[in-house]
Structures are given as C-alpha cells and as structure tokens.
C-alpha cells in the first residue's frame, strides 16, 4: 500500500503533461474573422506540434515506462487523438479561410 501512493501520484502528475486540444472556438466558425481564423490555425498547429514532440521516445514516454508501463500506450493514444483533431480542424479552417477569401 505504501508503494502504491507514490506511483499513483506520479501517474497523475505525468497525465497532466499530456497535451489536450479542444478544436472549437468561442464563436461559430462562420462568424470568425480572417484574423481569428489565423489565430485558430496557429492554435491547432501548436497543439499538433506538441503532440508530435511527445510521441515516440520522448521524455513523457520514458517517464511512463519507468513508473507505469501502460501509461506509454495511453500517452501515445492521447497524442494520436490530439493530432487527429488538430488535423481535421486545420482542414476545416483552411476551407473556411479560402471561402472567405482572406
């Protein structure tokens, strides 16, 4: 029981390091101005880049492997989901950007 608490705390701290990305803005997409679209694109690209850096042999995955091996799988899955959402959002925003002729 004594060994379980430090492992659980470490796992929670490492989970807090995983990137997250909510692909929606405050306004509906149709109401975004050109500058807001550029800002959303930058935010999506930043999230995708962070997820890419955290995949493979990253510091996060090494720490997960040391403390809680299934955490590596969860971290890879989370990063994959962030990349997928960001990629979809970038595609949507690029179409909107072109439609508005920004």
Furnish the topology, listing elements before pairings.
Layout: H1 4-15, H2 34-53, H3 59-67, H4 70-99
Helix pairs in contact: 1-3, 2-4, 3-4
Main attributes of the structure:
mainly alpha, 4 helices, elongated, 102 residues
Query: What would you call the structural class?
Result: mainly alpha
Output mean pLDDT.
Answer: 80
The coarse silhouette is elongated
Task: Give the low-pLDDT segments.
Answer: none
Helix content: 55-70%
From the N-terminal CA to the C-terminal CA, the straight-line distance is 60 Å
Tally the beta strands. 0
What's the tally of helices? 4
Main β-sheet description: none
Listing every helix as H and every strand as E from the N terminus to the C terminus, the arrangement reads: HHHH
Radius of gyration: 17 Å
Structure in a nutshell:
The chain is mostly helical and 102 residues long.
């Amino acid at each position: 029981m004594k060994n379980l608490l430090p492992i659980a705390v470490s796992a929670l701290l490492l989970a807090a390091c995983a990137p997250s990305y909510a692909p929606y803005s405050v306004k509906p997409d149709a109401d975004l101005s050109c500058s807001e679209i550029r800002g959303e694109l930058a935010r999506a690209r930043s999230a995708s880049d962070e997820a890419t850096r955290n995949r493979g042999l990253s510091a996060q995955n090494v720490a997960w492997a040391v403390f809680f091996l299934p955490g590596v799988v969860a971290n890879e899955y989370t990063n994959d989901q962030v990349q997928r959402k960001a990629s979809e959002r970038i595609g949507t925003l690029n179409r909107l950007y072109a439609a508005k002729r920004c």
